Amino acid sequence: MARITEWNPENEEFWEKEGRKHAKRNLWISVPTLMMAFIVWQIWSVVAIRLNDVGFQFTDEQLFTLAAIPGLVGATLRFVYTFAVGKFGGRNWTVFSTGILLLPTVGIGFAVQNPDTPYWVMLVLAALCGLGGGNFSSSSSNMSFFFPKKEKGTALGINGGLGNMGVSVVQFMTPLAIAVGTFSFIGGEGQVLPNGSEIWLQNAAFIWVVPIIALTIIAYFGMDNLPNTQQSAKDQFVVVKRKHTWIMTWLYVATFGSFIGYGAAFPLLLNSSFPEYAGLAFIGAFLAAAFRPVGGWLSDKFGGARVTAYTLILMTLGALSVIFFLGQQSFFGFLVAFLILFMASGAGSGSTFQMIPIIFPPKEAAPVLGFTAAFAAYGSFLIPQLFGWSLASTGAYVTALYIFVAFYVISILLNWFYYQRKNAEVKC
Fold it and tell me: What residue ranges define each of the domains in the chain, with the CATH number in brackets?
């Protein structure tokens, strides 16, 4: 493939003649590689609930920690991944960051077959899943360079939204994959459950090995490093001095942080509160991911600040409704309220990301996208931990939900003051 030597998507003639086709090709390769990263990142959210069924003897707190550790590591790695595209090039970094996902998938596949595997080994493997969490920052940063401002919201929404689908894909596919001995030839015997049925928990990881290899090869041959986008980490790090970097970080923590945190915690919450419906856990993450492109598209049409305001209000109402229906022990009400939370957080993730390229110039917008995503990814660690703390301290999940409500109310006020009101500093 010929190397791209010129890139100016804001030039309408260039965009229509050359830019659009290259941008779309890179986008449609970026989407499945990012989806795979999310799949690996969230493997523990579904593996953790089955470990004790196959002979492990971990406490509830240990299981919540296993589900949370990938979020902690992934969020921290995002600070590194944020600046990687500017340093190494988008294609180069996508190839590396996709291929390295083989480490946790192969490791987990073997570790879960032995109930005597020490807890610390499981923690290390959970931490390695955090490699997948870092990819969102680099992928978003990379895609932000490809599209003109007028299409960034939609493009970033598609990349992020379909990429985020990895959470629901892994939650949907895992129960199907572990039901058959597809990879028993590698040496993996099935595990007998207390009810006498047999599963192959190692398949939850092994099933992704071939797709990871295939996507790494596709990215190598199909993606591009763009010219004039390379920057040193020092040049990119200037964004931490910008006030609006921190405001947008807060807003993105409220939206995407909630989505990824609830995605990690929801299977355990459902299994704990309504175990007979645990198989429905994938629906929440699926809807959140599906609504992310909708949020980006609506923001391109009506303004990111306005869409963000509506989504935050819905999230507040959703969290309050979850509190109410948990008290009523109503599964239907609980599920509907949580799905509202998921959908609103997904749309809000798209709308806040659309605001960033409006607020910042292109070479600052790219690292800001990664920087805010890094902080927001801590939601994958903090939300399961807060739910675990709330349950251990009070015997219920309600205290954690009230903390989230307070965070959303503050977010509504920040968004209104800086970006939505008539005399806002930056109308967007």
Answer: 12-420 (1.20.1250.20)
